[in-house]
Amino acid sequence: MENVTIIPVNPLMIFPFVFLLLSIAVIPLINKHWWERNYPVFSFGLGFVAIIYYIFFLKNSARMVHTGLEYISFITLIGSLFVVAGGIHINIKGQSTPHANVIMLSIGALVSNVLGTTGASVLLIRPYLKVNKYRLTSYHVVFFIFIVSNIGGALTPIGDPPLFLGYLKGVPFFWVINKVWSAWLLAISLLLIIFYLIDYRYYIRVKEKLREEVEFKGEETHVLGLYNILFLILILIAVFINKPVLLRESIMAGAAICSYFTTRKEIHERNKFNFIPIKEVAILFAGIFATMVPCLDWLQINAGKLGIETPGQFFWGTGILSGVLDNAPTYLNFLSASFGLHDLQLDNQTHMVIFLEQHWKYLQAISVAAVFFGAITYIGNGPNFMVKSISEQEGVHCPSFFGYIIKYSLPILVPIFAFIWLLFFRVN
Fold first, then answer.
1. If you ran DSSP here, which 8-state letter would residue 303 be given?
2. What's a Pfam family this protein contains (predicted)?
3. What does pTM read for this prediction?
4. Strand, coil or helix: what is 89?
5. pLDDT of 178-228, one tens digit each?
């Protein structure tokens, strides 16, 4: 973190983040409606505890200001892509089959590298749900989150925020695709195969009569609001603007406002567009950003004491924390630690050249883990919660926080990640 002083923190200050995480996971299981009414109190209240600690006890208000600016950047990007993509209506005639679903998810994985995981998720989730409406289940949403909202965006700095931070630190734009494509292709292929087997089994159980009853026989395949692609391009260009402060965010917000007021009401109605999903993401991640600061600061100060030395260890360390902390600062912290391990400085371009020539395996491990493990939980990456919220509005019963992890992440993602570790990072 540039121009920000990191001060040792009391380890007890990690508990507000842990408590918020447990609240998100447990309370909806006990009383979902109560949680929907009161989650802002938990998010803002626990976030306020961390803010007070940094301002009045550590006398390090600059650290929280820096985090506040990061949050503004995060929610502006997420929100602007949400609004603009909500102005594009994609109608696909007919019903989706397992083969068609695999094709849609594959396209989504590729699009994630151009529009980012957020842009691709918001643009494609509604048509994906629509063509599967006669047999929607939770696994449809979960695999969309796995592939489109996370792992798909691992090939370019545009695809996922951690990789963009690496680009800003001096990692060449095409370095990622050159070093990550094989792990990306393996993970995407395995997930698509597993999805197809599950989807096909479920598909043949759906009665043919039911499929005929719900068959869509109306409008042909078409796209409405296509001019909003121009606003998407403007937002993506703005991503590369660093100075002056908040110019990037102002351009993104301006694009979103123009898109919203120029989009016909009919398109928003077809998309069932409203601000509930982005509101939930904004409120929960406000608390997450604030409460995770002590966790990240402790990690940065103590990274050298954790005994993490090999690329494989960096893979698992970066990955596990990326699943519960914001994966962008986690990426930076572990990247900084890997530089320090070799007596190099992250912000020194000469050292970056040396690192990429001699120690690139560490960056490969950190890059893959930061992006891939964002799919482990709902809070691992910004689009995850948004996709969940949009899907629930469409009537899909999405798994709970723990249900997502126990039913899908542990039995599906973890073995795939272990296989990737075995092939790419087990050998020093």
1. G
2. CitMHS_2
3. 0.83
4. strand
5. 999 999 999 999 999 999 999 999 888 876 655 555 554 555 778 899 999
Nearest Cα neighbor of 246 from 121, 388, 54, 71 is 71
SS3 content of the chain, % helix, strand, coil (to 5): 75, 0, 25
Q: Among 314, 327, 294, 296, which residue's Cα sits nearest to residue 164?
A: 327
Phi, psi for 381 (deg, rounded to 5): -150, 145
DSSP characters over 314-339: HHHHHHHHHTTS-HHHHHHHHHHHHH
Backbone φ and ψ for 222, nearest 5 degrees, come out as -160, 170
419, part of any domain:
yes
> How far is 215 from 75, CA to CA, in rounded Å?
38
Residue 154 token pair: 């691992």
Contact 60, 99 (CB under 8 A): no
Take residue 262 and report the two structure tokens written for it: 């120029």
Q: Would you place residue 1 in the very low, low, confident or very high pLDDT band (cuts 50, 70, 90)?
A: very low
Is the Cα dihedral 339, 345, 346, 348 positive or negative?
A: negative
pLDDT confidence of residue 207: 62
**6 within a domain of the structure (yes/no):** no
- Cα angle: 7, vertex 9, 10; to 5 degrees: 160
Phi, psi for 254 (deg, rounded to 5):
-65, -40
Contact criterion met (CB below 8 Å) for 85 and 149: no
Smallest CA-to-CA distance from 423 within 312, 307, 308 is with 312
Distance CA 158, CA 136 (A): 30
CA distance linking residue 420 with residue 391, whole number of Å: 30
Of 83-97, 184-198, 223-237, the one with minimum mean pLDDT is 83-97
Residue 5 lies in a domain: no
Q: How many CA atoms within 13 Å lie on the side-chain side of 417? A: 28
Cα 236 from Cα 211, distance rounded (Å): 40
Residue 225: closest CA among 88, 419, 424: 88
Q: How many whole angstroms separate alpha carbon 317 and alpha carbon 325?
A: 12
Residue type, 56: F
Q: Residues for the chain: how many in total?
A: 428
What's the domain range around 101?
A: 11-425
Total tally of structural domains belonging to the chain: 1
Does 3 reside within a domain? Answer: no
Is the distance from CB of 235 to CB of 253 less than 8 angstroms? no
